[in-house]
Amino acid sequence: MSNIMDLDLEFIKKRITVQPPYFAFDRLYQHREDDWDIYGEFCPEQCPGAEDGIVSIAEAGRHLAILGTCAASLYDHEDEAIYYLATRATGSIYHYEIPGEQKFQSERLTARARITGRHRKTLQAHTELVFENTALMSIKVEYYIIPYKLFSRLFSKNHHPGFGLAETGPSPYKRPMALDFEVPGDQGLTAHSADDSHGQCLGHFTGYPMWPVAIIVYSAGQVVAELMKYLIKDDSMKYRIHDIEVDAFQLTPVSVRLSFHAKLLKTSEDGLFSVSCRVVGGGQDVAKIDMQCFPGVEASL
Questions:
Q1: How far is CA 224 from CA 220, 262, 290, 293, in A?
Q2: Which of 273, 272, 224 is nearest to 51 (CA)?
Q3: Helix (H, G, I), strand (E, B), or coil: what is residue 66?
Q4: What span, in angstroms and rounded, lies between the C-alpha atoms of 54 and 42?
Q5: Euclidean distance between CA atoms 23 and 166, whole angstroms
C-alpha cells in the first residue's frame, strides 16, 4: 500500500470557498506516516519583482495560507462551507535559492501544513514551502472562522452572485497590481491602488469581491522596494526578506481604493532594514506589514 493518499480537490475547494485562479494547487495529498496534515503542489506564477528569492513571500503566503484551510477542512465535520479569514501571519525565509541548483525557473514546489490549534472561532496552522524535503520558508498563520450562513449575513451588502468564478485565460495573479506612487521622501513613501482592481480577487471568496491579504502584502512589498531604492539611491536594487509579520484587521471590499504608507523604522549595523507598511482603505486601517530586509542580493543571513 502506498504511503501517499491523494485528496479530492473539488470537494476541498468547495469547503473552503476558494476557487481558481486564486486557488492554484493542482494536487493535494497526505502522507500516512508523518505528522503533517496535508501536502500540496503548485507552480509559482507571480513575478517576484525586486524581491530576490525563489518565490515572493506574498505568493508563498497565499498558497500556504490556503493550504492551512485545506488542512482544517479535513477535520471539520460541519455540513456547510466555512470561510477562513487570515488575521495574522509570521514568516521566515531559510533559502533564497534552490539548494544545489544554479537557477530556479518555474519548478514545481511543494507546500505542507499542520493544524496547531483550533477553537470555535479561531484556527492556527504551521506551514512550510519545501523543495525535495528541504524547507525553504515557514509561515505561521492565524485565522478567524466564519460559517457560510453567518458570513452571508455579515457581508450581504458585498454579495455579487457569480463574481469571481473561474475564467479561462491567463491568471491575473501573474502580473502585479497597478499602483499610483506619490513622491518619495526621507519619511517614507505612499502609493495607491488603481481605480479598477477587481481582477485581483478572482477565485477568492467567490461571490464576495474582497481584497485578499496576499495581494495586499504583495503590493506592500512593491512600495517597500521603491522606498528602499530611493533611500539607497539604486534603482536596480534587489532585496531579501529576512522575516515578516502581517496583521489583517478587516475584510475590505475590492471596490475600496487602498493606500500603502511605507516607512523605514531603523537600520542595523549589519545592513538590515526594518520597514513598516500601513494599509488604509475607506479611512480605516486594513492591514499592517512589518518586514526586516537586506537590500542587495549579496546579503546573507
A1: 6, 6, 10, 10
A2: 224
A3: helix
A4: 13
A5: 10
Strands, E, within the chain: which ranges?
Answer: 4-6, 27-31, 38-42, 82-93, 109-118, 122-131, 134-147, 179-181, 189-193, 239-248, 258-267, 273-281, 284-295
242: CB partners within 8 A, 6+ apart: 92, 93, 272, 291, 292, 293, 294, 301
pLDDT for 107: 73
What are the Cα distances from residue 291, in Å, to 107, 130, 244?
26, 22, 4
- The single-letter code of the amino acid at 156 is S
Q: Report pLDDT for 158.
A: 92
Indicate whether 299 pLDDT > 50.
Answer: no
Residues pairing with 109 in the sheet: 42
Contacts of residues 153-162 at CB distance under 8 Å and 24 or more positions apart, as own/partner, are 155/208, 155/210, 155/251, 158/208, 158/209, 158/210, 158/253, 159/207, 159/208, 160/207, 160/208, 160/209, 161/207, 162/207
| Residue tagged 454579495 (cell numbers) | 159
Percent above pLDDT 90 for the chain: 68
Angle at 97 between CA 244 and CA 102, to 5 degrees: 165
Q: How confident is the model at residue 167 (pLDDT cuts 50, 70, 90)?
A: low
Q: Are 18 and 204 in contact (CB under 8 A)?
A: yes
User: pTM of the entire structure?
Assistant: 0.93
* Sign, Cα dihedral of 158, 161, 163, 164: positive
Query: pLDDT tens across 15-57, in order?
Result: 999 999 999 999 999 998 889 999 999 999 988 889 988 899 9
At 77 the pLDDT is 66
